[in-house]
Amino acid sequence: MNFMHVVEPRRLSGGLCMFWKDAHQVVLVKYAGFLIEVGVHDALMNHTWRFLAVYASTDAGVRRNQLGVLQERLNTCREGCLVMGDFNDILDASEKDGGRPRSVPSMEDFRRFVTYCNLLDLGFEGYPFTWRNRRDDGGI
After folding, report:
1. CA angle, corner 55, sides to 49 and 57, nearest 5?
2. Per DSSP, what are the bridge partners of residue 55?
3. Is the pLDDT at 1 greater than 50, yes or no?
4. Which of 7, 37, 42, 108 has its CA 20 to 30 A from that of 87?
5. Any bridge partners for residue 81, and if so which?
């Protein structure tokens, strides 16, 4: 990896890092405490697209503001966009295991964001949960 961009963590939380090979033309567009946005040019296809890497807050109020910033960024994007990262939220109760159940209203901000921005969940492979308090079953 010949190039990178880092958003430093605040105390014990957050922080983002993005690496790319020099074979790719990548231009930093914007960064914030929870976001790195780059423009990626595919020379073979002569096409440019945006990549937004996200690490959203666990605090619902802060996350709501962050989703607003992301929505503005996506509204101004004229190219194709890929948004990826940890939003620290869920769209459906089935995405949560253990702890207190989430109410439907508590998921509305994230659902509205995904719907309004016409985002598509690409799914995942592997273990469905990023961490688990009971660490005896292979989770982090």
Report:
1. 140
2. 86
3. no
4. 42
5. 50
